[in-house]
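Practice problem: Mediator of RNA polymerase II transcription subunit 7
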Amino acid sequence: MATATYPPPPPYYRLYKEYLKDPDSAPAPPPAIEGPYVLYGANYTVEYVVHLTDDVLPGLEEQGVRQLYPKGPNIDFKKELTALNRELQLHLLELADVLVERPSQYARRVEDISLIFKNLHHLLNSLRPHQARATLIHILELQIQRRKQAVEDIKRRREEAQRLLKEALGTLDGQ
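Answer key — structure tokens:
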């Protein structure tokens, strides 16, 4: 039975050889991305605001896609997602009808369905920052709860230890 050894570490580990003795000897991190960049075929723009970076989700029209829901900061996401979902269901039924009745005319229906999916996807991506904040808040609340429980456990054990010490002192004094 043949076995292979682990491959050697990447050569850049040598850059951190003196890190434990001198943490400043490590190379600086790469600079932050500035301006627009492409990720998996989608264009994104980074805006810097007082040392915080925010990825700005490009609008649908910037990507050449017609927006089916109202523009503006006060979008009722639940209402718009429900409306787009119903519209998607209707278009899927129409596609099924077209495929049965006039199979050669399906392309327009498929384009309409694709447009609805792109709008749904964009709306859902608009909710990602809110989802991330809510998840972070939940994690922090769980940490606070665990720490409070740990403090209560420590207090309870301290009181139990004090009680045992008093009992031990009482039995020593009684002898």
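Discussion: The chain has a mean pLDDT of 87. Students who identified this feature from the tokens alone can consider the problem solved.
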